[in-house]
Amino acid sequence: MTYETPPAEAMELRQRIDGRWLIVTVSGELDLATAPRLEAALDVPELPGGRTHVAVDAAGLEFCDSTGVNVLVRAWKRLRALHGQLVLLHVPGPLRERMSWMGLDKMLSLRETLPDRAVITVRGPAWERAAALPEDA
């Protein structure tokens, strides 16, 4: 049996700025072949304007394997270390279920809309204690 590696074009990435947020829209397949592109887009030193509030819009994501999930978790850790935030928007049902099985829905913020205010972790895991930043901070 032969397996073909999907081309990197199997995933489309778009970025836009919405106030304090960098929004990265991901569509297609997020897997071993395409994950490095998302990893580069979420690399903290390269984020436009030094932004540390990032939303990944996953509405168009058709497939995500463990490599893709790991990219998201690593990005969350990097942003959290900078008192930033990673939000996953419009996570498709199968991926949302998989994240729930892994307990990641308790760690990562899975939402349908951007938060009105940026939330940073003050101490401990994100679900234990958080503080809101003023909009102009």
TrEMBL record:
Record-linked InterPro entries: Anti-sigma_ant (IPR003658), STAS_dom (IPR002645), STAS_dom_sf (IPR036513)
Residue span(s) of domain STAS: 22-109
GO MF, one annotated term: anti-sigma factor antagonist activity
Entry superkingdom: Bacteria
Family matches, as PROSITE patterns: STAS (PS50801)
Sequence similarity: Belongs to the anti-sigma-factor antagonist family.
Protein name: Anti-sigma factor antagonist
